[in-house]
What we know:
Elements: E1 3-9, H1 19-27, E2 28-36, H2 46-61, E3 67-70, H3 73-83, E4 88-92, H4 97-112, E5 116-120, H5 142-150, H6 188-192, H7 200-213, H8 218-221, H9 234-238, H10 244-252, H11 258-279, H12 301-309, H13 315-327, H14 332-345, H15 350-360, H16 366-377, H17 392-399, H18 404-409, H19 429-434, H20 450-465
Parallel strand pairs: 1-2, 1-4, 2-3, 4-5
The structure holds flavin-adenine dinucleotide.
Flavin-adenine dinucleotide (FAD) is lined by residues 222, 230-234, 237-238, 266-267, 269-270, 273, 332, 335-336, 339, 357, 361, 363-365, 368-369, 372-373, 376.
Amino acid sequence: MTKRIIHxxxxxxxxxxxxxxxxxxxxxxxxxxxxxxxxxxxxxSAQNWWLQKSLEKLKKSLDNNLYFFKGNYKDIITSIxxxxxxxxxxxxxxxxxxxxxxxxxxxxxxxxxNIEVKTFNSLLLWEPWQVAKPDGSPYRxxxxxxxxxxxxxxxxxxxxPQPNQINYFKINGSKDIKSLNLIxxxxxxxxxxxxxxxxxxxxxxxxxxxxEDGIDDYKDGRNFPSKKNxxxxxxxxxxxxxxxxxxxxxxxxxxxxxxxxxxxSELGWREFSYYLLYHFPFIEKENLNKKFDNFPxxxxxxxxxxxxxxxxxxxxxxxGMRELWETGYMHNRVRMVVGSFLVxxxxxxxxxxxxxxxxxxxxxxxxxxxxGWQWIAGSGADAAPYFRIFNPITQGQNFDEDGIYTKKWIxxxxxxxxxxxxxxxxxxxxxxxxxxxELGKDYPLPIVDIKExxxxxxxxxxxxxxxx
Length: 468
Ligand SMILES: Cc1cc2nc3c(=O)[nH]c(=O)nc-3n(C[C@H](O)[C@H](O)[C@H](O)COP(=O)(O)OP(=O)(O)OC[C@H]3O[C@@H](n4cnc5c(N)ncnc54)[C@H](O)[C@@H]3O)c2cc1C
């Protein structure tokens, strides 16, 4: 008898280079399912909006053969198995502690019931347990992790083509994406539509365009938010519409140079985030560096709101926060600058920034978001030292010199001469009048003084500096 295999889609919403789907298709007739795990759901978030669109695209590529479920993984699989004669359940592995435990329990249950279980790696270039320091302990510093740990391993798996043929087995179940209730009537989502083309094909197209016309000056250009030198592939990678292996090999197939190496090393930072989450699972909620547990955060909620709304009075910060709200994305340089401002100048715990990004980013990713915030707060692995406080004025002047990015997101500053774009409060009243700008009315005055808040932050750090 031909085997019937369930493939559980997770963060692998693609047909090509999907090891579990490919093996399941070879082994027999497949039942592709997607389960919304309610305990792990991020309601009212941009990532849910992306997920819904991506699942719709995936269902089309599977000739409408994708079943949607919501609830507990084990209960759902048990119920499908009890109603159908199923021989195997395959999936691609996850690396956060919640999913690892959930999948372990499911595997145990299936094996006890003589159902074949196969799991695969579709998410990472190197499995986190393969990479270790010579003494066997996990790396905590990026450079040796990547150069000694990863690049000395055997080359990542070469990407696999999509299955030649897929035979489906039909079950009773909903194929209506609306049954998942991923997004409600929130009209915030409408504007995200303008900025993104979603799904496996769109991801491949974006990669090709970036390799043709963006990677050339990646190493330097990636720092400037108005340049086209970043790929914007992050949400596609987050949902597995494209695999890191596909990106790695597509980039490596071009002539070797520092831009390609640097781009691949950023994929390496992603590996590092997953590696940290796997080896130190508590970092999703707790500081990796325990001395930060005693940090005297002040968590002023009015400041937090001003930051979220993009009305801090610091143009590069406000441009970034408005870009995030309008598009669900923020350029990496600006993520670092707004992050530093929140945790250092405003003394607000990184948890608040993490939660806001988790709601607003279309690429919100357990590993990258956590590692990014701990890095910026100084509490993470190989983190930015706490005393490195990004200055929003000079960051704007250095990385958006001509103001293209800032003026795009803060049009009320569009007539201001670039000399004052990042410090409008220093412009004379004549200059402000000419720019049709009344500070405090058309655009806010700074909510904190940059020098003073910096010195308060450094004093706060002194209180924990010598703690172990
Ligand atoms: C506070 C903070 C929070 C962040 N939260 C997230 C998040 O939730 N999801 C997310 O994908 N990235 C996050 N990042 C990392 C980084 O900002 C984004 O991956 C990057 O901006 C995505 O844009 P891109 O695809 O154009 O990147 P590119 O420069 O084109 O890089 C290609 C890919 O490499 C990976 N990458 C690049 N930079 C980093 C990095 N610093 N760390 C880890 N992986 C990286 C991403 O998968 C990215 O898509 C965060 C960074 C900070 C400072």
